[in-house]
Amino acid sequence: MAGIKTLGSNSKIRYLTKSLVRTALTCPRKLVYATNSAYPRNNDKEDDPFIRHLSEEGQRFGDYCKGLFPHGVEITPNISRSLEVDGKTSHDDVSKSLDVDGLIASTRRLLLNSQQRVTLFEGAISHDSYFVRPDILDRSTSISSNGTELRVIEVKSKSWDSRYSIESKMWNANRTSIKATYLPYIQDIAFQTFVVRLAYPEVEHVSSWLMMPDRAKKMNRKLMLDSVKESTIKTSIPTLEETQQTIDDSVATLLNVDELVDSALTSSVSYPGNRMGETFQDVIQSWVELLNGQDFGLTSISPPHVGSQCASCEYRVKSIPSKNTFSGFDTCWEEASGLTKDEIQKEPLVVDLYGYTKSVIKKFLNEDRYFLRDLSVGEFKDKKKNESTKSISSMQRQWYQVETTQRKANDSVHTPQYVIRSESLRHEMQRWKYPLHFIDFETSSPVLPYHEGMSPYDMFAFQFSHHIMTDSLEVYHASEFLHAERGACPNEPFLHALYDAIGAFGGGTVFQWSAHENNVLSSMLKSTVYTSSLSSREIESLSVLLSEGSHPMVDLCKLAKDYYYVDGSGGSSSIKRLLLPTLNASKRLQHIYGSSTYTGKNFGNFQWYQLDECDNAIDPYELLARIKYNQHDDEATISERSSVAHGGAAAAAYHELQSYDMSESERKALESSLLRYCELDTLSMAMIVQAWHGFLEDEQ
C-alpha cells in the first residue's frame, strides 16, 4: 500500500505501512525510494521462480488460515458479502468503495456496528498517516471482562513447533530481548497493534497474535486446503472456543504474543544510522513525520548510511530504464562518497567482497576506500594460515577476489586464472575409487502437506540424477528418477530407485555437492514410513553412504571451498557460481564440450561450451533456460512454465505438478524441464572434477 493515496478530499497522505516499516528497518533511506516511482527496484528476486513460489506458499497458508474462520468477511474493493448484524442481514457492498476511505469505513462499520463476534480478512485501518491491513481481525466480547476484545492476527508461514514454548523459542535469556530469528515477525505484528490501538481507542483490549504452521501437527483430511476452500459461511457464528478447536485440529497454531509486542514497541531498535536509545515506537513515529514532511522527489530522509547492508539493496539497478529514473543505490553512494554514478556502476565495491563482516566494511568505508581495487594484500594476511598451507582460508579467498578485480582493471584482455591447492587436492583424489558416482537430489518441503498424516514442511524427495565417471575420465548419464504423479508421495519409490542406481555401487566413490543429499537420505532412512517396504539389504547399502557410514559421500562443495578458487566466481563455492568461470579457465572442458558431442538421457549431441557474439562463454544454465519443449499445442503456456534452471525453480515446478490441473502437454513439458535441469546439475559436478584433473596435469 506504499505510495500517495487520495482520501476523499484533495489532500494527499503518504501512508506508513507495515511493508514500508519492514523496508525502512533495513535502511531508512529506502522510504524515499519505495514511495517514488523514479527509483525502480531490482527485479531479480521478483523474477525468481523460487521467490514467487515462496510467496505463493505464504498465500496458500494464508488462505488455509482464513478457512479456519468460515464466518469471516473479506474486505476487498470487489467483493460483496452478507453479514448478519444484530439479527438482521446487512449487505456490505465493498465494491462501491474503491478508495482507501471506503475500505477503512467498511472495516469500522463491520467492527463496531454489531454486538456479535465479527471476523474480517484484510481489514483496512488507519490513524493519521499510519495504515495497516491485518491478515485477520477477530472482534468478540471478552469472557473475563465482558468488554470488547479485538484480536489482531498476523499469519506467517514461518515454521513453529508447539512442543517448545514461546519462552524458549522467542525470548533470549532472562527475557532481556527477542531472538533475532523472530524479531521481524514480532515487529510486523507490533506495528499493526500500535496502529489498531490508536485507531480504535474505544476497544477495551487489543491483543496480538501470530498464526503459523506447526511442525508438531499432522494434516487432517477434513482440513486439507481444498476442503477448507470449499467450506461455506455458517448460519451461526462459532464461539471462540469452537474456533480454537478448529485451529487445534488443523496444522496451524495461534500464539498470543502480547508481551513480545509490548517489549518490541518499547525496546531500542537497530537499523542503519539509528540513534542511541531510540525505541521501535519512537522510530515509526519519526518515520511517519519524515515521510510526509519530505520534499517529494528529493532524498531528504536522513543522510545515507552506506555499509555492509548495501550489498543486498533492492535499489541497486544496473540498467536504468529511462532518463527520469535513478538507481537508489547509486544515489546513496554518490552522496556519501563523492564518487560519480558512472564510477559506482563500473567496478566492484567493497560490499561485494566475499564473506565480508560489518566491521571490516565499516573500516574500509571510514578510510574512503570504496572499491575492491583500493584494497591491498596487507588487509588479508591470515595470522593462522599462509600461502603454503594445505587449504584456502576465507581471507585468502577474499584476496584472490580482489586480485581478480585488479587484473581486470589493468588488463585489456583478461585471461581467467585459478588457484588450486595441488598437493591437498591430489591427496584427496587419490583416495577415490572408480567408477565415480555424481548424484543430485531435488526436494520440496511445502508449508501445507500434500498428503494426510504429514506435517508442515515435511520433505518430499521427488527427483535425482546420476552421472558416472570412469577411470579414463569419460562421463555418461547413468540413471535418473522423477516421481511427479499427483497425489502420490514420492519418498518410498525414491529410495528404491536410488538403491537400484547406486546402492550396489561396488566400491565406487559417491559424490554430493554440499550436505543436502546426506541430510535428505539420513532423514528418510530414519522414517519407518518410508523404509517399511525396503529390504534390509537396501537399507544397509544406502546407510553406508551417510556421513557416519563406512563409505560416506564425498562433498565436492567442501573440496572446492578448501582447495579451489577461480576468477569470476566472486569467491563462492556454489556450483552455479563456479561452473561458468571453470569453463572459461579449463582448456580441457573447452575441448570436451566445445562440440556437439554430449548425449545424455535428456540431451542429444549437445554443445555445452558455447560463445556469445562477444566471444564470452555462455553459462550452461543459461543455455538450459533457452531450451523449450517442442510441441504444437499450448506452446506459449508450456514455454512459460517449462524453464527450470535452478533448484528453487525445481521445487516450484514440483508444486505445480502436485497442485494444478494441466494438460498432458504442459505436464510433459514441465517434467522434461525438471529432468534436463537435474541432469545438468550432476554433469556440472563431473565437469568440475574433469577440470581439476586437467589443472593438476598442467602443473606436472
From TrEMBL:
<feature type="domain" description="DUF2779">
    <location>
        <begin position="437"/>
        <end position="574"/>
    </location>
</feature>
<protein>
    <recommendedName>
        <fullName>DUF2779 domain-containing protein</fullName>
    </recommendedName>
</protein>
<dbReference type="Pfam" id="PF11074">
    <property type="entry name" value="DUF2779"/>
</dbReference>
<dbReference type="InterPro" id="IPR021301">
    <property type="entry name" value="DUF2779"/>
</dbReference>
